[in-house]
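INFO batch 0412 | record 1 of 1 | parsing
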Amino acid sequence: MRKKQIEDMVTYNPGDYCCVDERKDKSFFGGFIDKEIRIFTGSVYSHCFIVVSEDGDIVEAEPFGARLANLSEYAGEHLLFSNTNLSQGQRQKIVESARSYIGVPYNFLDIAYLGLALKGIKWSWMLSEVEEQKRMICSQLVAQCGWNATVPEWLCGQPHPQLVTPGMLASLAMS
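INFO prediction complete | emitting tokens
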């Protein structure tokens, strides 16, 4: 498989995930959501996505729903790519899964639940809403794609993909 390189000489392959510490997009959603995720989860990493093509196409969960975008939108930002050893079959399944989630709505409630859960507050009514997968934040989308491709380490020790935060995925990528 051919590897692509971006400005900072980072290499990636389809099926990899990437974490972003703080997006330069300071629009309401770009700034506010990043800040809320960092505050609630206690992580400097506030966003992540799946690479779905050698040309840098990505699938990411955004406030208006999961979308297909391009890695070029993150040029000049600090990017942390996963280092999980994946088979070709796992990569293909991750890419297929990610593409199948395009259009899935975002869930702001999940950010609050994840922050509370990290502090030991786990309300069952919120958990059942979070686990339904009708809506996803970025890290949930990444973890779910890993789960679908039998990559359990992308659950970062959590019992369910919907309980994974961007910071957890960043920690896994740094290990």
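INFO post-check: Helices lie at 28-41, 88-100, 108-118, 124-131, 138-148, 166-174.
INFO record closed
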